[in-house]
Amino acid sequence: MTAPQRFAAFLRSPHHAWLALLTLGIGLASASVPGMIAAAAAYALGWIFLPDLRWFREWARRRSEAAGAAASAETRARFDEERAKTYAQLSPAGKSAYDRLARAAEEVRSSSGGSDSPHAGRLGQLAWTYLRLLLTRETLHQFCQKEKSPDIEREILEAQAEVEALETRSRSAQERGAPEDAAATEKILQSKRSRIAGLERHLDHVRKAEADLALTEAEIERLFDAVRLIQADIMTRRDPDTLGAEIDRTTAHFHRTQDWLRDLEFDRTSPDIPDELTAAVSLQIEP
């Protein structure tokens, strides 16, 4: 703990409260100038020497460790809660898919040293990313089932045909000298053109969702196959160096997948979970 940290801890400590009471408090109670000067001097000396005493440094260290442990436990509880909520939103097929990967990844982690393994955090990240991908796939699939690009393309073509017919009608009205009919037709045209612009934006949105769905499915397959490959390596070679290299290779593109998920409007899960946290939790989730 640095000197500024010790002074900050001392300021918030009961030791400081007692120092102030026994020096400044008594000095004020004396109601004499010499007494108040002596009290202020004693208070200042306390600030100089007490934060640097061994027993106070030990007290501050224990307090800091306790606060860190409490914060870590709270963070882990929040993460466990979020994982459980994400898992609960999956369909039975999605839960079964996650359970298969979690069992395989847990076996790999156990074979490489458990939660103390240098690979534990990355395997936890893999399982969390896989869970997020499964929920994203189901959300995208539901959206794409409801909003199909061929149907929107047909609506656009129909609307464009209506616009062409209205444009012909507007020109005809102008040619025969009927400005009121032409003006009324132009208002309808504006509405139809605005609808086409909206449909085109919607089509772009749906096409992006369809592309995201295809990418999500490919990533799900890649991660599951990678874990099965690592599992096979453990059963055949049991080589720690090979295991580490394979895990490194599998997780090498995590940042890219996580960045993509972070920007995906269909993903509402926490993207930035530290390795220390994912290493400490069980990969399998109790329903």
What does this structure look like?
- Helices cover 83% and strands 0% of the residues.
- The chain folds into two domains: 70 residues, no CATH class; 192 residues, no CATH class.
- The two termini are 42 Å apart.
- The relative contact order is 0.11.
Q: What Rg is obtained from the alpha carbons, in whole angstroms?
A: 33 Å
Number of domains: 2
- Strand fraction equals under 5%
Global mean pLDDT: 77
Q: Can you summarize the main beta sheet?
A: none
> What percent of the residues sit in helical stretches (DSSP H or I)?
over 70%
Distance between the termini: 42 Å
Runs in which pLDDT lies below 50 for 5 or more consecutive residues are none
Determine the number of helices (DSSP H or I, runs of at least 4 residues): 11
Which H/E pattern describes the elements? HHHHHHHHHHH
Class based on secondary structure composition and strand pairing: mainly alpha
Total number of beta strands: 0
Q: Which geometry do the CA atoms define?
A: flat
